[in-house]
Design goal:
The chain is mainly β and 122 residues long. It is built from no helices and eleven strands.
Amino acid sequence: QVTLVESGGGLVQAGDSLRLSCAASGRTNSIAVMAWFRQAPGKEREFVAHSFWDTYGQYYADSVKGRFTISRDNAKDTVYLQMNSLKPEDTAVYYCAAGLRTSTLWKAYTYWGQGTQVTVSS
C-alpha cells in the first residue's frame, strides 16, 4: 500500500507561481511512475504531467508544457509540481497519483492523494 499526501495549493493571481508537493509513504519501492492530474468543477479529471520514480523522463500535457515542471526528491519520497505563469484556466483540484506504468489516463494509476485546491484569479 502507498499513501500520497499533497500540499501547496492556494489562491494566487494570474501570472504567479505555486509549487505543489506530494509526499509518498508505505511501499514506495512498488511505484514506477508518479503523475499529476487536475479536475475543475464540472469537468473530467485531466492529465497534467508524469515522471518515472527512479529514472529520468517526464511528459506534459500540451496545456502546461513550458509552464509546469514535475520533479522528484527520492531521498524525501516526494514529487513536486512547479507551476509558473499560472492562468485562470489552471484553476482545479490537483491530484497526485502513483502507478506502475506511464499513462495520460487516470484509470491507469493505482494510488491517489486527497487533492489540493489551486485557484487562479484574473
